[in-house]
Design goal:
The protein is of the alpha/beta class. It has ten helices and 13 strands. Helix 3 links the parallel strand 5 and strand 6.
């Protein structure tokens, strides 16, 4: 198969940042996706409807003409958040960051048990809970933090809120995959393009590669392979979420480099490459375009896109003012290309 036509996909996990960076990166997502779940970890975070609407307007102003793209806004959960905030229809979902788990998560939740009133409200009105699934205990190895979260936190959330729609975002472990596959109640996971193709050897062998550093970190090859099996399995519980996260090269290549991979420019091409390698191109549409809308209770997109087998080179660095952002797979060979309809 050298040409694949599918419904226009959605991206169920993006970071756009703000200001000049936002204006530079939004078009890369809008060129290929019809909708995207927009992460709220700004400074200060998006914790109320007014902030969400202002941010949505900023995204809208950065869109190319006639893109047809729709940003779906999320609320950043904090200790003591008023459950009534969840009733605001500007929010498609709410995001749970354990405090200090990742970029701009200092305002995150320190006591998940204290969130019960908010989670009960979300369960009642059907609003999804999106989770960065890692514990932050300093004694836990960074490679084990997702598995420990699944065992000690997520299992209890699933039991205590049986009807709450839960998404384990950017799943990175066989443990996380198994939980999503076996859990009772409405449970799903997003999978990034980079976690489907890199493991911790790519990050560390032969020298540290800071542009492959993200959180959760890439794990052993067996975990990567578990993600690939889940993505191509056809299970409606797994769907596309790039977790595209732009950072300046100066912030990545530093003594304390930032976590995040700017994968939006090559996301669909990499997903197509993986599904092709796994002999599952016929299942890409479900993963990219159908499973996510079904979980969120939204209709699939009517518009269609075309992916063509056509070797090309990933786009190079993106200049934003005095800074540069390096896309995932920049300058590397790609086997697929987003074509015309």
């Amino acid at each position: 198969m050298d040409r694949l036509e599918i419904r226009r996909p959605d991206d169920w996990h993006v970071h756009f940042r703000e200001g000049a960076v936002l204006r530079a990166v939004v078009p890369f997502t809008a060129r290929q996706f019809a909708r995207a779940i927009v992460m709220p970890n700004l400074v200060p975070p998006v914790t109320d409807g007014a902030r969400a609407r202002a941010y949505r307007d900023e995204i809208g102003a950065a869109l190319p003409p006639d893109s047809g793209f729709e940003p779906l806004m999320t609320c950043y959960l904090t200790d003591g958040l008023d459950p009534a905030v969840m009733e605001d229809d500007v929010f498609t979902a709410a995001k749970l960051y354990p405090a200090h788990a990742t970029t701009n998560s200092a305002h995150g939740v320190t006591d998940i048990a204290a969130l019960s009133p908010v989670l009960e409200r979300m369960q009642r009105i059907g609003k999804p809970l999106l989770i960065h699934g890692e514990v932050t205990h300093p004694e836990e190895d960074v490679a084990d933090r997702e598995a420990v979260f699944v065992e000690t936190v997520l299992t209890g959330l699933r039991r205590d809120f049986p009807e709450l729609r839960i998404v384990l975002e950017h799943v990175t472990t066989a443990d996380g995959v198994a939980f999503v596959e076996e859990a009772d109640g409405p449970t799903a996971a997003t999978i990034t393009p980079h976690h489907l193709v890199i493991d911790r050897n790519d990050l560390l062998v032969g020298g540290i590669r800071p542009h492959l550093y993200c959180l959760p970190v890439a794990k052993r090859r067996r975990h990567r392979d578990a993600l690939r099996r889940a993505a191509v399995s056809g299970s409606p519980r797994f769907f596309l979420g790039t977790d595209t996260a732009p950072h300046a090269v100066s912030d990545k290549e530093s003594a304390c480099g930032c976590a995040g991979i700017f994968c939006a420019p090559t996301a669909l091409e990499v997903y197509a490459e993986v599904f092709d390698e796994e002999g599952a191109l016929d299942r890409l549409e479900a993963f990219a375009s159908l499973n996510g809308p079904a979980f969120y209770g939204l209709p699939p997109n009517e518009a269609r896109i075309v992916l063509e087998r056509s070797p090309n080179e990933g786009p190079g660095p993106l200049d934003v003012g005095d800074e540069t952002i390096l896309p995932f797979r920049a300058g590397e060979r790609l086997e697929w290309r987003l074509g015309g309809s």
